[in-house]
Write a structure and sequence with these properties.
Keywords: ATP-binding, Kinase, Membrane, Nucleotide-binding, Serine/threonine-protein kinase, Transferase, Transmembrane, Transmembrane helix. Its EC number is 2.7.11.1. ATP binds at residue 85. Residues 334-352 have a biased composition (Low complexity). The chain crosses the membrane at residues 366-387. The protein has 390 residues and is an alpha+beta fold. Among the domains are: 52-134, Phosphorylase Kinase, domain 1; 138-202 and 218-327, Transferase(Phosphotransferase), domain 1 (Orthogonal Bundle). The chain is 43% helix and 17% strand. It has 14 helices and 14 strands. It has helices at 33-37, 89-92, 95-108, 141-148, 153-172, 209-212, 226-229, 236-252, 262-271, 277-280, 286-295, 307-344, 357-361, 366-389; strands at residues 18-21, 24-28, 52-53, 56-64, 68-75, 80-87, 119-125, 128-134, 138-140, 175-176, 185-188, 194-196, 203-204, 216-219. The chain has a six-stranded antiparallel beta sheet. Strand 7 (119-125) and strand 8 (128-134) form a beta hairpin. Helix 5 runs antiparallel to helix 8. The termini are far apart.
C-alpha cells in the first residue's frame, strides 16, 4: 500500500474524504502529503515515541488520512517491508470508532484476491488499532490522471475490469467498500495489476447500524452514490456507481459531478444529470459508453446489478478494443514498410558515367574486327582478279 517513492504515497487531497452530518461538514479528514512526510515517525504528534508498533519498526510516513496514519514499516520477525496503517490516538479514544475500524479491517482481511491489497495482520498496540498490509510499488490512478489528463479507452476498460473483479470478490463476502476513487486504486509498476486499497470506510451488509451511525455521510462526494450522499442504507451497487464515476473521470479528464465545495457536489450527485460520456468523448466505443452511463444511474435498480456482470461486460469491451489496437498497429507497420522504397529513391539519381569499352577493356571492339576482316577479304579478291586477268 505504497509506491515507487516511499514518501510519495498518495494522501487524501483537500475536500476528498470527509464526514458529514445532516449535510454539514463536521471535519475535513485531509492533510497534504508533504506535511505528513516531513514529520518523523517518532515525533510526539504521532503518539508513538518508541518508533515501534507491536513487532513493526516504523521507517517513515507515507500517508495521512482522517482516521489514521500510514507508515512504511519493517516486520521485525519476517524481515519484510509492510504498509502499516495506525489509527490516530485521538480517534482511537472513541470506543465506537475503534470498534468499527477493527471490525471492518477484519472483514477486509478475509478477502484473498489479486486485485485487493493483502492484509497481513489486524491488531492493537497500547490501545491503538493498526493494520499491516502489503507494500506496493507503482502509482495511484490519481497520480496517473495528473500526469496524463485522460486515459485511452483500451486502458480504461482494462482498469475497470480489474476493479470490478476485485469488488466482486469483496461483495461475495458481503463487504462494501464505500470509498472507490482514484486515490484508492493502485497500479503496480511491474505487472500493471490494479489493487483496491483502503477499506477504512468499508462495512459488511449485516453490520450493526449503530457502528455506521445512520444519518452520517461518509466518503468522497465526487465519487459517492446518491444513496450514500443522502445517508441512506447502501448495498454493493453503491460501489458500482463509484466505479462508474472513476471510469468517467479517466476517459473525460473530469468527474461526472462536481461543485465548488462538498455541499454543492453532494447536491449535484443526488439531483443533477451528468453529460453522457459519449458527448464528452465523441469517438468512444459505444459499448464502453453504455456501461458507464448505466453505472451512473441515480437509482440502484437501473444500474448493473453485480460487479461480476460489470467485469464480464468490460472484459468483452477490452478484448474488442485490444483487437482493434493490434490491427491498427499492424496496418501502421505495413504502411511504414511500404513507404520505405519511396523514401530511399526520393533523392535524384546521379547520371551514369559513359565508359569507352575499348579503353576500359584494352580489346578492339567486335565491329572493328568484322570491318577489318571484310576489308582484307575484299583486297584479296581484287588481287586475285587482277592476277587472273594477266
Amino acid at each position: 500500500m505504497t509506491q515507487n517513492d516511499p514518501r510519495g504515497r498518495q494522501g487524501p487531497s483537500p475536500d476528498d474524504e470527509l464526514t458529514i452530518a445532516s449535510n454539514e461538514t463536521v471535519g475535513d479528514a485531509s492533510r497534504t502529503l508533504s506535511d505528513a512526510s516531513a514529520r518523523s515517525p517518532n515525533g510526539p504528534q504521532h503518539g508513538l515515541g518508541s518508533g515501534h508498533v507491536a513487532e513493526y519498526r516504523l521507517i517513515d510516513v507515507i500517508g495521512v488520512g482522517g482516521m489514521g496514519i500510514v507508515y512504511r514499516a519493517e516486520d521485525a520477525r519476517l524481515r519484510r517491508t509492510v504498509a502499516l496503517k495506525v489509527m490516530k490516538p485521538e480517534v482511537a479514544a472513541n470506543a465506537m470508532a475503534r470498534k468499527r475500524f477493527l471490525r471492518e479491517a477484519e472483514s477486509a482481511a478475509r478477502i484473498d484476491h489479486e486485485n485487493i491489497v493483502t492484509i497481513y495482520q489486524v491488531g492493537e498496540h497500547d490501545g491503538v488499532p493498526f493494520i499491516a498490509m502489503g507494500y506496493l510499488v507503482g502509482e495511484s490512478l490519481r497520480q496517473k490522471l495528473k500526469r496524463e489528463g485522460r486515459i485511452e479507452p483500451r486502458i480504461v476498460a482494462n482498469i475497470g475490469r480489474q476493479v470490478a473483479t476485485g469488488l466482486a470478490a469483496a461483495h461475495q463476502l458481503g463487504l462494501i467498500h464505500r470509498d472507490i476513487k482514484p486515490e484508492n486504486l493502485w497500479l503496480e509498476a511491474e505487472t500493471g495489476r490494479v489493487k483496491i486499497l483502503d477499506f477504512g470506510l468499508a462495512r459488511t451488509q449485516e453490520s450493526d447500524m449503530r457502528l455506521t451511525q445512520s444519518g452520517m455521510v461518509l466518503g468522497t462526494p465526487k465519487y459517492m452514490s446518491p444513496e450514500q450522499a443522502t445517508a441512506k442504507t447502501v448495498d454493493h451497487r453503491s460501489d458500482l456507481f463509484s466505479l462508474g464515476s472513476v471510469l468517467y473521470h479517466l476517459l473525460s479528464g473530469h468527474e461526472p459531478f462536481g461543485g465548488k465545495d462538498s455541499a454543492s457536489t453532494l447536491i449535484n450527485v443526488t439531483q443533477a444529470e451528468f453529460a453522457p460520456v459519449e458527448k464528452v468523448c465523441p469517438h468512444l466505443n459505444p459499448a464502453l459508453g453504455r456501461i458507464i452511463n448505466r453505472l451512473l444511474a441515480k437509482h440502484p435498480a437501473k444500474r448493473p446489478q453485480t460487479a461480476r456482470e460489470v467485469a464480464m461486460t468490460l472484459a468483452e469491451i477490452e478484448q474488442q478494443l485490444e483487437a482493434e489496437y493490434q490491427e491498427n498497429a499492424r496496418r501502421q507497420s505495413l504502411t511504414e514498410t511500404a513507404e520505405l522504397p519511396a523514401t530511399a529513391s526520393s533523392s535524384p539519381a546521379s547520371a551514369p558515367i559513359p565508359i569507352n569499352v575499348s579503353t576500359a577493356t584494352g580489346k578492339p571492339p567486335l565491329l572493328s574486327l568484322v570491318l577489318l576482316g571484310l576489308g582484307i577479304l575484299l583486297v584479296g579478291l581484287l588481287l586475285l582478279a587482277f592476277l587472273s586477268a594477266n
